[in-house]
Amino acid sequence: MHSEHSVLIAPGGHYRIESSDGLLAVCDGEHSWYLSDGEAHRELRPRPRSEFHGLLTPQWLIASYDLQVIGAEEVGDRAAIPVTGTPRKAATWRSGYYHFLDRVEVLVDAELGILLRSRQILDGQTLEFAELRDLIINPPEAGMSGMFTLPPDVPVEDEEEPFADYQPPSGVGWQVAGAAVGAAANALGFALRHAPRRKSGWPTDDEEPGMPGDAVLAPGDWEQRQPPDDRTVNLLHRTGLAEPALTAEVHEWIDALPWIQNFKEFQEKLPAPLEGIFGPDAVWDALGERAAEDGLRHRVARLAVQIPGHYRLDHMSGDWNKRYKAIACDGEHSTKLFEDRVTTGPVKHLDAKFAAMLDPAWLLNGWRLAVIGPASVAGRNGIRIRAVAAATADNGARNLFTRADVVVDAELGILLRNTTYVNDHPATRVELRDLNPLGEKTRFRIVPGPGMRSVTGSGGPLGDLGLPRPAEAAATAAATAGALAAAGAVAFTGWLDKHRARRDQR
Fold it and tell me: Which residue among 4, 326, 413, 487 has the highest number of C-beta atoms inside a 10 angstrom radius?
């Protein structure tokens, strides 16, 4: 499918998109309207259109691809740089389809840093092609009044709030049901407060149970400071650096209280029809008290990794909420170590929170970065950077995972520390310590020890339960089903005997 659009862009988020059929979209920096069938649909949150977003904001390119400059070119009177990008080997854990492509071929404007051309290639075929033509810098139309507002003769349909027309049920029956739900919520809250704590199978002599003190930041600490220079950008992109091959001690802190408080506050701000959609207040209050009482969770693991696709993670201490003691992947299979067995399944990628430490290029797309200065983590030198999600940086909104404080290793280009925040409160921290080069004898496949079973499974959660082998499980299931069927037949026959009309009643 081929389409051509005329795009007019001005500072402050202003844009206007037209086609040969007329106006398609317009944005005044606060609201955007999209025209369809002679009617304009207003959106409360302006969103860039795909027609030009990927060309004018090419951060996705540096965040998801390894880039190679292949020469120089001129397009009209503009100097341009041809660049080829191949998917980053360490970035396969990310969402999206970038890592499925063979490569992308782009033409970068040498002055503006935007893409004049972009070609995405899959299986040797062009999947998508886009380019900017007839580029004009500072066009006079950008300063004309009314170019970024909707024409007055176009009818407007505003974006409605979700469930705006919803009317909550009423009546005596619903009042009784509501009272029952409230009683059940109070009972559940009581149960949550007084439920016994789950015993951990890991050592509990923790020397660092609390979130480190330097994780606590004041609201003013997030104010924009020095933006990253070229060296820092290249360090985050890991330009020219070899893929990580190392061992490290992984420390992770988790504080559930900020998450619980955030969800409760979010729910309280919802319209009345949606009140309680995430659960009654009594439950959230009980969860908050339980989280505050239990405190933070600190756990430690040992990580060995060789990008791409090879890793081993051994749980050393803390509550990992996992039945297995270790997991490894050799690029072809994943293996898990349990107390009495080793299970083998399909490839399982390294947990995203740990993979994000090894490839920090994700910070180059969708985040506003501010360099704080030199920092040190476990004796290694790095650069401390604070990141605010670009979607919330302009309006000051704060929510889950929209702020992060990281330290990037000045030599290896990996994150030594990543702290995420919920409403200015540190919620998670992952830290790498005791970094060493990967040993030659490191194995990324767990072999069963003496007396241990070897189990092959699908890799799903049921495989961690130590169920019988598939054939045995199938036989057991068949026998169970047969027994249930027989019991059901007997029960049904008994019911018939009780309800079958006697001859004298016919």
Answer: 413
- Distance from C-alpha of 32 to C-alpha of 45, rounded to nearest angstrom: 7
Most confident by average pLDDT, 45-54, 244-253, 321-330: 244-253
Residue 70 and residue 216 in one domain: no
505 inside domain = no
pLDDT (0 to 100) of residue 341? 92
Q: Is residue 406 part of a domain?
A: yes
Do the beta carbons of residue 45 and residue 93 sit within 8 Å? no
Helix crossing, 281-294 with 257-268: angle to 10°? 160
Domain count of the fold of the chain: 3
The answer to whether residues 10 and 77 belong to one domain is no
Q: Same domain, yes or no, for 381 and 314?
A: yes
For the record, the structure tokens of 235 come out as: 């360090």
pTM of the model: 0.73
Which among 115, 139, 163 is the end of a domain?
A: 139
User: Is there a single domain that holds both residue 370 and residue 231?
Assistant: yes
Q: Evaluate whether residue 286 is within a structural domain.
A: no
Arithmetic mean of pLDDT, 333-358? 92
* Residues spanned by the domain of 22: 1-47
The answer to whether residue 272 scores a pLDDT higher than 60 is no
Surface-to-core class of residue 403, CB atoms within 10 Å of its CB (0-12 exposed, 13-18 middle, 19+ buried): buried
How far is residue 281's CA from residue 322's CA, in Å, rounded to a whole number?
30
Given a cut of 90, whether residue 415 has pLDDT beyond it is yes
Most distant pair of Cα atoms in the chain: their distance: 106
The answer on 69 and 8 residing in a single domain is: no
- For 400-410, the pLDDT digits (tens) are 668 899 999 99
CATH number at residue 220: 2.50.20.10
CA distances from 376 to 28, 241, 433 (A): 45, 21, 11
Dump pLDDT digits (tens) for 291-318.
Answer: 445 557 889 999 999 988 899 999 998 8
Question: Is residue 331 domain-shared with residue 438, that is, in the same domain?
Answer: yes
User: Does any domain span residue 432?
Assistant: yes
The arithmetic mean of pLDDT across residues 50-73, rounded, is 82
Under 8 Å CB-to-CB from 256, ≥6 apart: which residues? 287, 291, 297, 427
Residue 335, CB half-sphere, CA atoms under 13 Å: how many? 19
Same structural domain, 10 and 94 = no
- Higher-pLDDT residue of 5, 192: 5
Q: Per-residue b/e over 296-306, b at no fewer than 16 CB within 10 Å?
A: bbbbbbebbbb
Q: Is 13 exposed, middle or buried (0-12, 13-18, 19+ CB in 10 A)?
A: middle
Say whether both 37 and 95 belong to one domain: no
- Tokens representing 487? 């019991």
Q: Which long-range contacts (CB under 8 A, 24 or more apart) does 415-422 make?
A: 415/356, 415/357, 415/358, 415/360, 416/357, 416/377, 416/378, 416/380, 416/382, 417/377, 417/382, 418/353, 418/356, 418/357, 419/215, 421/217, 421/258, 422/258, 422/259, 422/261, 422/262, 422/398
